[in-house]
Design goal:
The structure is a homodimer of 484-residue chains.
Chain A lengths: L13 H10 L12 H21 L6 E4 L2 H15 L6 E5 L4 H12 L3 E5 L9 H7 L4 E7 L11 H11 L3 E4 L15 E5 L10 E5 L25 H16 L1 H22 L3 E4 L9 E6 L4 H10 L19 H6 L6 E5 L6 H22 L19 H4 L4 E5 L5 E7 L6 H11 L6 E6 L3 H13 L2 E8 L2 E7 L3
Parallel strand pairs in A: 2-3, 2-4, 4-5, 5-6, 12-13
Antiparallel strand pairs in A: 1-7, 6-7, 8-9, 9-10, 11-12, 13-15, 14-15
Helix pairs in contact in A: 1-7, 2-7, 3-4, 5-6, 8-11, 9-11
Chain lengths: 484, 484
C-alpha cells in the first residue's frame, strides 16, 4: 500500500522505533533532578542533543528540543522578533513559507508589526535580490524555508543569508523539508525542524539559535531547554528523533540519488501519459523525493479519493481538497495551475514498482475523471478518447453560454459558472473557446476562488490571451481572447 | 532501587508502553489527511480523546491534547484571560500553585494585568472565603490546583468553583497531581493535566475547556486540537496517555488505600525516629501517595545526596537543593520549616518493605548529617547521642556570639551568620539560645534567604518568641526571645 506523502509525515524509521523502545526505561524521569533516574535521563538528553546538533551543524548549546516543529517555528520567530525589538518590528518572509511561518507573520502584523512578503517566480523560488530589496533599517528578522514543502523547490538560503548578514539582519530558516537530506548551508541565524518529517516520532521539534543572535523567549518563563521550549522534555522521543536523523543522514546520499531517479521518471512520464498536465516547481534545484503536478480539467477531490481507493496516498494543493476552498498559497504565489493538483513525496525505501504502478493508475484515473466531467481533452495521449465524450454530467447542467456585444463592439461570449466549483469554470471556458473565432473573447463569470488562479494558468498552458478580471454581481468576470 | 518522586514524574506504566508500541504503526500519519493512513491516525486520536474525556469528566469536544502539561497550563490560562478581556484583566491564583501557573500569572502582570494571590493556611490549603474576597467585577479568571504538588494538600475545588460560579468567574484547575486518583469534582471551567504524572509518556498534556467558557487561543492560529494546541499531534503518545489513565483509574481506589497506609506509616514513624522533624501539609485531606517533612538542623542538599547514595530518589523544597537558593514558594507560603525538607511521593506499586527501609536509612542519615554539622539535637530519639558532639565542623568556624546592650537596655546576644547557608544560621541560633537566660534575646544576622522562613519556623517548633526582622549591613537581623 504505497504511501506517497512523506512531506506531510514520514512513517516511523526502524531506528527511531528501536531507540524509542530502548529509552523508555531510562528516559522517563526529570532530567533536572540530581538523583540516579534524573541523571540517567540527563545523559540521554545530552547525548541526543549532541547528535542532533552535529546533524544540524550547530553547537549543542545552540540547540533546543521543542514539542513540535510548529512550536519551534513559533518560538523561533517570536523569540527573534522580540530579541530585536529595539531595531524595529519589520519582518520579511517569502510568499511560499509553511503556514506555521505565515501564521506567525500574520499574528505579528495583527499585533502592530510590519510585514513584507517576498514574491517567488513560477518555479516557487525567491531571488536574493528580492530579499535585499525587502530589508529595511527596521527589519528585525527575515525568514526563508530551505525547500518548499509543496513543490520541492530549493531556496537560495546561503545567498539570502549572505544578503541578510550584510544588512545585519538575522535569518530564520524553516528546514523542515530538507534536514533529512543534509545540513542547511550558509550563515543562517535561527533554524527550525520537525522530527516526524524524517521518520522520527511526532512531538519533537528542533530549534537552533546561533550564539550571538539576540533572542528573547516569549511566554511565561520556564527553565527547560534554555527557556525556549517550556514543558517537561519528552526524552524517549528526543532520543528516537536524534537517532533516526543520524540514520537517515547515513543513507541520505545514496537514497537521494535513487529517489531522484524515480521522481525524474514521474516528471518525464506524467506529461507523456496524462495530457494537459503541468509539472510545477524547479526541475533541477529541488528536493530529491518530491514532485508536484496539476492536471487540467480534473476535480482534485475526486482524484485524491480515487487514488486512495487505488491505495495511493498523496496530497494536494487544490482548492476542493482543502477546508478553506482556496488553492494552496504556494500555488497561488507561483501563479501555476491548481486544479487536479497532486503532490507526490516518496518516503525513503520506496520501491520503483510502486512508482510505475502509480503512473498507470494515475493515467487511467485522470481519463476517467475527465470523461465524467465532459472535459475537452487534448487530442494526444490516452485521454484523447474522452475528448468528444460531451455526455459527462459535469458541464451541461450549468453552462450558459451567451453572445453579447462587448464594450469595444466586438462579439463577446459569456460563460456563467457562478456557483460552480473547480474544475467546472475552466472546463466551461475551454469548451466555449472551441466555438469562438480567433480574436473573439470569452468572459467567464465565476465565484470559485480557484478560477482566479486557474483561468490565467489555463491561458498560459493553452497560449491564449488572458485579458484580466473585474468584479460582477455575485462573483468575478475573467476575460480571455482566443489567439489561435 | 526505590524511586519516591512520582509527583515529579512517574515511571512509564506497562499499559502505556504497550499502547505506545501498538500505535506506532498506525499513529504516525497526519490525522487531518483523508487517505487511509490519515483516517487510521484519526480513529486512534478520536478513541483516545473519548477515553481521556471520560476520565476527566468532560465531553470529547471539550478536550484538547497539548504537547505538555506546561503547555496546557499556559494555553488554558492565557486563552481564558484573553477570552474574557472585555470583563477585565484581573487574575486570582493561590500562593501555592505550580510554577507554570505562577509564571503565567507573573507574565500576565508584567504585561499590565492585575494579580491577586490567595494565601494558604499552615497546611497549604486555601479557604473558599478568601477566594470570594479576592474576586472583583473585573476578575477574568481564578486558578486553583486540585492538590498541592509539594505537600499533597487537597484544595477545596468544588467550594471555590461554586464561589466563582456565583460571581460569574471561570475557574481554571491545575489537576496535574490528582487526575490519576479521580476526576476533579465541582463546576470547574478549564482544567489542565500532564500524562507523565500518571505513568503516561512525556509530551502529552490535557486541556479541557467547558462549553460556554469564553476562550481565545493565543499565538499564531493553528487548526489542530480546536486551535488550542498548535503542532502535529503525537498520536502514539496520546493513545498511550489515554490508555494508562484508564488503567491507573481502574486500580486507583485500591492502590490509594494501600499507599495511604504507607504514607500514614511514614507520617507516624518519622516523628518518632527523627527528632525535631515537622511533617507538613494537611494530615487528612491530602493525596494518598505523598508526604512531606522537614528536618531541623539538616542540610537538604547533603540529605538528598546521601539518600541518593542509599538508592532512594526523593525531592525537596529546601533552598540549598534549588538553583534559586530560596526555599520553595509553597513552604514559604505555608510558613513552615524548609530546612532538611524531603518530599516522598510513592509510585503505584511501591512495596511496603521499601518504605520500611527508607525510614531506617533516613533515621541514620539525619543523625549523621546533624552530627557532622554539630547540631544541638533534642534529648529524645536516636539523634540524642549527637547532642553534645560539638566537634562538628559546621558551627564553630563562623559562630560569633557577642553580648551587647539592646535598645531596651536588656542584654541581647548577637549571632553573626552572615555568609553562611542553611541550616547553619538556625543551628547557631539554637546553640546560642542554650546560653541565654529566659527572657533574653538572641539576634541572628544572616543573608541566606532560608533564614527568613526557618528562624520563625524554629521558634514555632521550639515555642520561643519570634520578635521580627530588620535590615542590617549585608543582610537581615532576626530577633528571638527565650521563653523557656
Amino acid at each position: 500500500m504505497p504511501y506517497f506523502d512523506a512531506a506531510s509525515s514520514a512513517p516511523l524509521h526502524p531506528v527511531a522505533r528501536q531507540a524509542l523502545q530502548a529509552s523508555l526505561d531510562e528516559g522517563w524521569a526529570d532530567p533536572a533532578r540530581l538523583y540516579r533516574e534524573g541523571r540517567r535521563a540527563r545523559l540521554l538528553l545530552d547525548a541526543a542533543r549532541e547528535a542532533a546538533a552535529e546533524a544540524v551543524g550547530c553547537r549543542p548549546d545552540e540547540l533546543s528540543f521543542t514539542g513540535s516543529g510548529t512550536q519551534a517555528v513559533h518560538s523561533g520567530i517570536y523569540g527573534s522578533l522580540s530579541g530585536r525589538r529595539r531595531v524595529g518590528r519589520h519582518l520579511v518572509v517569502s510568499a511560499v513559507e509553511h503556514s506555521s511561518v505565515l501564521h506567525s507573520a500574520a499574528s505579528h502584523e495583527a499585533a502592530g508589526g510590519s510585514l513584507a512578503e517576498v514574491a517567488v517566480d513560477r518555479t516557487g523560488r525567491v531571488s536574493p535580490d528580492a530579499y535585499a530589496a525587502a530589508l529595511r533599517p527596521d527589519t528585525a528578522l527575515a525568514a526563508l524555508q530551505s525547500a518548499n514543502h509543496e513543490v520541492g523547490t530549493l531556496q537560495p538560503v546561503a545567498e539570502v543569508a549572505e544578503v541578510c548578514r550584510a544588512a545585519g539582519v538575522p535569518l530564520f530558516v524553516d528546514a523542515a523539508q530538507s534536514l533529512a537530506w543534509g545540513p542547511v548551508e550558509g550563515a543562517w541565524s535561527i533554524l527550525a525542524a520537525s522530527a516526524h518529517k524524517w521518520g522520527g516520532p511526532a512531538g519533537v521539534g528542533l530549534l537552533a539559535v546561533r550564539k550571538g543572535v539576540r533572542f528573547a523567549p516569549q511566554g511565561p518563563p520556564d527553565e527547560r531547554e534554555s527557556g525556549r521550549a517550556p514543558g517537561f522534555e519528552n526524552i524517549p522521543a528526543i532520543v528516537a528523533a536524534a537517532a533516526s536523523l543520524r540514520a537517515v543522514r547515513a543513507e541520505a546520499e545514496a537514497e537521494a540519488a535513487r529517489l531522484r531517479e524515480l521522481v525524474d521518471l514521474i516528471r518525464a512520464r506524467v506529461v507523456e501519459v496524462v495530457p494537459d498536465v503541468e509539472v510545477v516547481g524547479d526541475p533541477v534545484r529541488r528536493l530529491p523525493h518530491l514532485v508536484t503536478f496539476s492536471c487540467l480539467y480534473v476535480d482534485g477531490e475526486t482524484l485524491l479519493h480515487e487514488l486512495d481507493r487505488a491505495e495511493f496516498s498523496v496530497s494536494s494543493g487544490s482548492s476542493c481538497t482543502s477546508s478553506t476552498l482556496t488553492p494552496s498559497h504556494v500555488l497561488r504565489a507561483m501563479g501555476v495551475l491548481s486544479e487536479g493538483n497532486v503532490r507526490v513525496s516518496l518516503p525513503i525505501g520506496t520501491p520503483a514498482e510502486d512508482v510505475e504502478r502509480f503512473l498507470d493508475v494515475l493515467t487511467w484515473l485522470v481519463t476517467a475523471v475527465r470523461t465524467k466531467l465532459g472535459a475537452p481533452v487534448a487530442a494526444s495521449g490516452p485521454g484523447a478518447a474522452a475528448r468528444d465524450a460531451g455526455t459527462g454530467s459535469g458541464v451541461e447542467a450549468g453552462a450558459g453560454i451567451a453572445a453579447e456585444a462587448s464594450d469595444a463592439g466586438a462579439e463577446e461570449f459569456t460563460v456563467d459558472s457562478l456557483g460552480r466549483l473547480c474544475p467546472i469554470p475552466v472546463i466551461e471556458l475551454a469548451r466555449a473557446m472551441e466555438g469562438v473565432p480567433v480574436g473573439g473573447v470569452v468572459r467567464v463569470l465565476a465565484d470559485d476562488e480557484a478560477a482566479r488562479l486557474d483561468i490565467p494558468a489555463w491561458c498560459e498552458m493553452r497560449d491564449q490571451e488572458y485579458l484580466g478580471e473585474h468584479p460582477v454581481d455575485g462573483g468575478t468576470a475573467y476575460r480571455v481572447r482566443r489567439r489561435s
